[in-house]
Design goal:
The structure holds two protein chains of two kinds.
Chain A (H helix, E strand, L loop, with lengths): L2 H41 L7 H41 L2 H15 L7 H36 L2 H27 L2 H21 L7 H15 L23
Chain B lengths: L1 H7 L2 H28 L7 H28 L1 H4 L1 H9 L4 H14 L11 H30 L10 H24 L3 H23 L3 H24 L8
Helix pairs in contact in B: 2-5, 3-5, 3-10, 6-7, 9-10
Classes of the chains: A mainly alpha, B mainly alpha.
């Protein structure tokens, strides 16, 4: 090995050690701080909340998303590399913000994917994106948004509160259905959801709390049983170039 | 509603939220220093470093502002600290509001509607935070394993991986969306307007090859949905007052 190659090797090892160690420390801190907020409300205020309510709520959410907790880190690792993993899953909006930023930066400096240059360019691009994102959130949401909410008339605020969820979920269903491009599954999901939510639940009130869990389980089973066995094998998640943000 | 806002905007919640921002700023500084140190030996001189940072920053402006719009619309529901951390950072608007809606449902309450008390908010916030944290926990556990090649995704059946996650998420979103239709005529109209706005944005994005419309689709859908909501609610098509 030449001396130049050795210097490069040791410089990279140093960089890898620093980013791995501090990436993990900062991410663990971010995780603890994000959990501390609800823990404070539960234990240190006058709110009295039953343990069972908390865990039931979490189970309802976990039942839908647990696959993605593991799947997304696995999918993004080959694209991001180890150092950027600790940035990306804390900063969020990976597919619609961080990945485009990294790609733009790599092409701006002509770095071929897979090289050390490309890896450093991606990390620096995510640093740039994080800086812009942090400050726009603090200024436009933290300061201006909080002020805006305090001055809008009460009736507008209450309409926003009542209708914000329907205003989001309609768009989200369409966006996700278009993204996955699996018409068969989309049809199955919508039919099952209509049957459960609009036919079953109004007649069997006890089902209301488990309705979505029931829809999810039935759709997964039906989508698997009724899958198109003659179709071309779909590309493996790792090979897909398109992503959509779920958690990350 | 005064009572809810006292909890969702509590100073302690602000402290923890700003703490997460502080952690990201510190992480960014450490990473930049590491890259600056190693760069010259790795064919990545100072000007490449600056060019990468700058193009990453510029590319993030549009998406960041699109997220800001969605986040501001959610302030009345979750308060600023929870929105900053859950919607702005770690999670995404779709996942986090879906989570909050699922968790509120288990308490027999409607997110933002009937029975949305500080207790319901807390259960929703707990569920969102715990679930959202699982992505970070998985990253902390899996990254070292993936780095040493101990875990390979190839081992998993590709047909299964193509169907199960898509089906689970489509089912969850469809179920939550259709549940809204049962609430009032106003809800039906708002869901339809939101869905149509997104469909138009996506169609235009494809026809005009305008990727930015894809990013802004959710923001536009929410704004138009809420404007329509204001009129249909005033016209008496909303849910009966609690």
């Amino acid at each position: 090995m030449t001396t130049a190659a050795q210097t490069a090797q040791s410089a990279y090892e140093q960089y890898d050690r620093t980013t791995s160690r501090w990436g993990r420390i900062t991410m663990a801190l971010g995780l603890l701080l994000s959990w501390a907020a609800p823990v404070y409300l539960i234990f240190f205020t006058d709110l009295r909340i039953a343990q069972s309510d908390l865990w039931t709520g979490f189970l309802a959410v976990g039942a839908v998303f647990w696959v993605f907790w593991v799947l997304e880190p696995l999918t993004y690792f080959p694209v991001l590399g180890p150092a950027a993993m600790y940035q990306a899953f804390m900063i969020g909006n990976i597919a619609n913000k961080l990945l485009p930023s990294a790609v733009v930066a790599q092409s701006a400096i002509n770095a071929r994917p897979g090289t050390k240059r490309a890896e450093l360019a991606a990390v620096m691009a995510i640093c740039g994106a994080a800086t812009v994102h942090i400050f726009s959130l603090l200024i436009f949401v933290g300061i201006l948004g909080t002020w805006l909410v305090s001055v809008v008339p009460e009736d507008i605020r209450s309409v926003t509160q009542i209708y914000i969820f329907p205003a989001i979920i309609g768009a989200v269903v369409v966006q996700f259905a278009v993204f996955v491009k699996q018409h068969r599954i989309t049809v199955i999901a919508v039919v099952v959801a209509v049957l459960v939510q609009l036919v079953l639940v109004p007649n069997v009130a006890a089902l209301a709390n488990y309705a979505t869990a029931l829809v999810v389980m039935s759709t997964v089973v039906l989508a698997w049983v009724l899958r198109d066995r003659s179709a071309q094998p779909v590309p493996h998640p790792e090979d897909r170039t398109e992503h959509m943000d779920v958690g990350g | 509603m005064e009572e809810l806002s006292a909890y969702v905007n509590s100073p302690v919640l602000w402290f923890f939220a700003l703490g997460v921002f502080g952690v990201i700023i510190v992480q960014t500084m450490i990473y930049m220093r590491a890259a600056r140190r190693a760069g010259p030996q790795l064919d990545f001189p100072r000007e490449d470093l600056r060019a990468s940072f700058r193009s990453g920053a510029v590319a993030a402006i549009g998406p960041s502002l699109a997220i800001v719009i969605v986040a501001v619309a959610l302030l009345a529901l979750f308060g600023t600290p929870a929105v900053l951390v859950r919607i702005g950072l770690v999670g995404s608007a779709a996942t986090e509001t879906a989570s909050a809606s699922l968790a509120s449902g288990t308490m027999g309450a409607t997110l933002g509607g009937e029975g949305y008390t500080p207790e319901v908010f807390t259960v929703a916030f707990f569920a969102m935070s715990l679930s959202g944290g699982m992505w970070m926990l998985a990253t902390l556990v899996l990254t070292p394993l993936l780095k040493h090649g101990d875990v390979k995704m190839r081992a998993i059946n590709p047909a299964l991986m193509a169907i199960v996650p898509a089906a689970a998420l489509l089912a969850a979103f469809a179920s939550l969306g259709i549940a809204e239709l049962g609430k009032s005529t106003g809800h039906i109209i708002v869901v339809v307007v939101s869905a149509l706005t997104m469909a138009v944005c996506l169609a235009l994005a494809r026809a005009l090859n305008a990727a930015w419309l894809r990013e802004w689709g959710l923001g536009f859908s929410i704004i138009l949905g809420l404007v329509v909501a204001y009129f249909v609610h005033s016209a008496g098509l909303g849910p009966p007052p609690a």
